[in-house]
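Appendix B, example 12.
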Amino acid sequence: QVQVAESGGGLVQAGGSLRVTCAVSGRTFSRSAMGWFRQAPGKEREFVAAIRWPGPYRYYSDDVKGRFTVSGDNAKGTVDLQMSSLRPEDTAVYYCAAIAPLTSYSTASSDYTDPGRYPYWGQGTQVTVSS
């Protein structure tokens, strides 16, 4: 059974930086994908970033491209989301999700930005950006 857990959320001022980390336990697979999603109060869950192995391939939403960086170590089952130039509108609960094992050979971004494709989810970590 694959389990996913996030850590590292917190409070930061606008313009600041924060790193959130995701750890996948249970089993690791040479082919996998891990995604970050976020949900603000009263809004739907939205895609933030994802990383896919083999590759790795990285995917970002237009809103965070250039400000956030996703990286990870598939062998260790860890993924980091480094967030910079944070804005108050980045305030949300950030969720990590995993596709493990990854059976698709597709590298199309649409296959990794859809939350419905991820069977394993963490509990989420709160990120709050103050103005």
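The mean pLDDT is 95. The longest strand covers residues 18-25.
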